[in-house]
Specification:
By secondary structure, the protein is of the alpha/beta class. It is built from ten helices and 17 strands.
Length: about 425
């Protein structure tokens, strides 16, 4: 056995021989019930409810005994976000003014002025194209885009327009811009786009704690988002969208895993536990943290999303987005004991593009083996983003066993025994 393998074996043996901590259903239920309580008001950003949730998570991290992230004097990682509200917009296409109800814009600047197609990437969405798929792809692209949408897509365009009409949040004031026009035009001979936005600045907060490992330059990140959609349309008199599964379940798992690993001896790799804000509003919390951490030193990211329910078709499947992008999932499966009853497998919903829709995406685009982990049936869950997403709809015992499975699956990575292959960023759009 060479020297490096000896060190890895010794580190793994140290973890294996430590007294086994417990992850109990009672503890899971205690944390989950607090995060999903009506008093948290659905944990929407910029509300007293999310501030209560963040204070509670910080108190849990303090009770566990986590350390703070380098550069912070508390578990609260605060950062500014900019809100842009439309003041005026004028668009002329091929010499003719475009009516406002046929314009949808998503901008990251206070003012944009386009006077020719040299300023933009022109995309034509024809009558037979999939606007939903193209819209999802365009939102991930850099630069300026002018999107000509055939009026066969008017219904979906109007939904997009309503979505884009709300104040736009951004971390950067020099980011990408997209203007969509409902038209049968496919060629652009002349173009004028003039748009102005009023800017305000607000503050958001991630909650981050650390267990230092023997290797300070090798980090394993466990994460979830603690925000949800807040108060919405009343359903049978209930207007609080508690987000018990989405994603109080994941946040509960992060807290439970922090407590679990803290009770073991010092890990080989440094462990970072983060709960993100504003996942539901654009993933700003994970984007911000990804800029504070060195992606080359981030060995793996376990992003935990909606583990409160077993899958309808395979209740023992813990599925991983982007399974084929790295060997992360294979390592987790190898870490499970044979009689665990659970399997780590591929995301059953590839058409939903889930690898790009959660907080792991900000890290994956930097090459980090960053994956989201879930168990919920995304094609049939009637409580997703509904007022009915409450703790009573969840299976606490299933959720507890899932957290235990994640802890076991993570052990080869935490101990330094295994290192997942990297994501190829050039393959991501």
């Amino acid at each position: 056995m060479n020297y490096r393998n000896l060190l890895v074996f010794a580190a793994f043996l140290t973890l294996a021989c430590a007294p086994e901590p417990e992850i109990t259903s009672a503890e899971v239920e205690r944390v989950l019930s607090t995060l999903s309580a009506d008093s948290m008001q659905g944990r929407d950003i910029f509300t007293p409810g999310i501030a209560m949730a963040e204070a509670f998570i910080q108190s849990e991290f303090a009770d566990i005994g986590l350390e703070t992230l380098d550069g912070l004097d508390s578990y609260a990682q605060r950062f500014p976000v900019y809100s842009l509200a439309a003041e005026s917009q004028r668009v002329e296409l091929n010499g003719r003014a475009v009516a406002e109800d046929r314009i949808a814009a998503s901008v990251s600047q206070e003012s944009i002025r386009w006077t020719s197609t040299d300023d933009v990437n022109v995309v034509v969405v024809g009558p037979d194209h999939d606007l939903r798929e193209q819209f999802s792809s365009l939102r991930r692209q850099d630069g300026n885009s002018l999107v000509l949408v055939h009026d066969n897509h008017e219904q979906f365009f109007n939904n997009v327009r309503m979505f884009m009409s709300r104040p736009r949040y951004t971390l950067d004031l020099e980011g990408s811009n997209m203007v969509m026009i409902l038209t049968r035009q496919t060629d652009v001979t002349s173009l004028t786009v003039e748009m102005d936005y009023a800017r305000t600045t607000a503050e958001l907060t991630n909650v981050v704690g650390v267990i230092p490992g023997r290797r300070s330059d090798e980090v394993v990140l466990f994460s979830a988002h603690h925000d949800h959609v807040g108060i919405g349309r009343p359903v049978d008199g209930d207007s609080i969208y508690n987000g018990a599964n989405d994603d109080a379940s994941g946040t509960t798992a992060v807290i439970a895993l922090a407590r679990y690993f803290k009770q073991l001896r010092q890990p080989e790799r440094t462990l970072v536990f983060a709960t993100f804000t504003a996942e539901e509003r654009g993933g700003f919390g994970s984007q911000y943290l990804s800029r504070q951490m060195d992606p080359d030193q981030t060995v793996a990211m376990f992003n935990i999303e909606m583990i409160g329910k077993p899958g309808a078709e395979n209740p023992n499947l813990i599925w991983i987005t982007g399974f084929d992008e790295t060997d992360f999932g294979e390592i987790l499966q190898q870490g499970l004991v044979e009689d665990s009853g659970y399997t780590f497998g591929a995301d059953p919903y590839p058409d939903q593009d889930l690898f790009y829709r959660s907080d792991n995406a900000a890290f994956a685009r930097l090459g980090v083996p960053a994956h989201s982990i879930s168990t919920t049936s995304m094609d049939s869950d009637e409580d997703y983003h509904q007022a009915s997403d409450e703790i009573e709809t969840l299976d606490i015992d299933h959720m507890t066993m899932t957290v235990k499975a994640i802890a076991l699956g993570a052990m080869p990575i935490v101990s330094g025994e295994a290192t997942p292959t990297r994501v190829n960023p050039s393959g991501l759009n």
